[in-house]
Write a structure and sequence with these properties.
9-stranded antiparallel β-sheet, 6 helices, globular, SCF_F-box_component, F-box domain-containing protein
Length: 401
């Protein structure tokens, strides 16, 4: 006769509880596993915002809370603003190839070159200014109805923009694009200036604007100045600034013009400063860095530079911040046309052309130290780029709401 094992009520209760524990065990483990991550959101926000954007991108899969945070527009803007991680980007895109020079993976103070390709065909493109890590990508050679995109160079996200069917694309001689943002409304806008003639006094520039997320470009009429070459604007305090020839107190001269992103209007012409030896000094570049506008002037025969910043934006007053003599710049060799291509954190980025390639040279305004960052670039226009995780598709959705 087979012996049957007796089971007491206490054992039944114990076995039943074991089964219950077995059923809920996976859920309990999951909660326990992630419970240490469930810090207050403001603390989590503060910790993550101190990390490089690349590191935050890798942590997206850690938990749902972190994934949600990395899609929050406010957090991503904060991460971008506080980031001290820069790369240098070539602003000329040939055959869809994006070329970056990354300091985080370089050595000896020099960046390492990396590259990738976008599906843009064989056309050449140019990058506009950068806003929140985004840039406007437009067909570099003009032509009928050129394609335009919003690009995040770090995440490689590309968003195609609608074409302007009413634009004079075929007839335009000079063209300039600027990207800006209305912080109050959270709207990103692209401003296009184009000229239909080669003489700025006879052919004022036309202005068009596109609000990201809408379907159409809008014409704003004529700008208060003409264009005779390609000048890129800079963005500061929700306004785009251009250097161009315009009428100032009845006289045509080189001026600064301000375009409000919010009001979509140009302001009055702003006079430029008068550098030393003004008859032999020529304007070379307009840049934005550290919340200031920077103007550079150069005497080509003596290799002498002056750098001015706008001190008072209400009264439009300028102050000379730096002057660089030939001896200060002797280590820079022969800087191509004295062109300052960017300024960031006290470092000036010059360009130099030797041995069939473009070189980037960094000069520190405080220490006077200079060194070559890289050699042999194919493009002639570079810029410091601060990394960002903001998606071009996400800002399009914001504008639609």
């Amino acid at each position: 006769m087979e012996n049957k094992k007796s089971i007491t009520p206490s054992q039944v209760e114990e076995d039943g509880s074991k089964k219950k524990r077995n059923k809920i065990q996976p859920e309990t483990k999951t909660e326990t596993c992630c419970s240490w991550l469930l810090l207050p959101l403001d603390i989590m926000d503060d910790i993550l915002s101190r990390l490089p954007a690349k590191s935050v991108a890798k942590f997206r899969c850690a938990c749902k809370q972190w994934l949600s945070l990395t899609h929050d527009a406010r957090f991503l803007r904060s991460l971008h603003v506080t980031s001290s991680s820069y790369i240098i980007i070539d602003k000329y895109i040939v055959n869809g190839k994006i070329e970056l020079y990354d300091f985080s993976i370089g050595h000896g103070g020099k960046p390492m070159k990396t590259s990738y390709r976008l599906n843009l065909g064989s056309k050449d493109y140019r990058l506009s200014n950068f806003v929140d890590g985004l840039t406007c990508l437009r067909y570099g050679s003009g032509g009928p109805k050129p394609d335009m995109y919003l690009l995040n160079p770090m995440t490689r996200e590309l968003q195609k923009l609608p074409k302007n069917n009413n634009s004079h694309c075929e007839a335009c001689v000079h063209e300039s694009f600027g990207l800006g943002v209305d912080m109050n409304m959270g709207l990103y806008k692209i401003v296009r200036l184009f000229s239909l003639g080669r003489h700025p006094a006879q052919h004022p520039a036309h202005c068009e604007i596109y609000t990201v997320g809408t379907r159409e470009w809008r014409s704003l009429g004529e700008a208060p100045f003409g264009m005779w070459c390609y000048y890129q604007p800079v963005l500061l305090h929700e306004a785009l600034y251009w250097i161009a020839r315009g009428n100032l107190q009845g006289e045509e001269k080189l001026c600064l013009f301000r375009f409000s992103i919010k009001d979509e209007k140009f302001g009055s012409a702003i006079s430029l400063p008068h550098p030393s030896l003004s008859s032999r000094m020529s304007y070379t570049s307009l840049k934005e860095s550290g919340g200031k506008l920077w103007l550079t002037f150069r005497n080509p025969t003596e290799n002498y530079f002056e750098i001015w910043t706008m001190k008072d934006y209400l009264n439009n007053t300028w102050v000379k911040e730096y002057q660089l003599h030939n001896g200060d710049l002797s280590s820079l060799h022969k800087v191509y046309e004295g062109d300052v291509i960017d300024i960031v954190d006290g470092d000036i980025l010059f360009r130099d052309y030797t041995s069939g390639g473009w070189n980037a040279i960094s000069y520190n305004l405080c220490s006077g130290a200079s060194h070559t960052l890289f050699l042999g670039g194919k493009g002639s226009d570079f810029a410091f780029y601060r990394e960002s995780l903001i998606s071009p598709k996400a800002i399009e959705g914001i504008s639609k709401t």
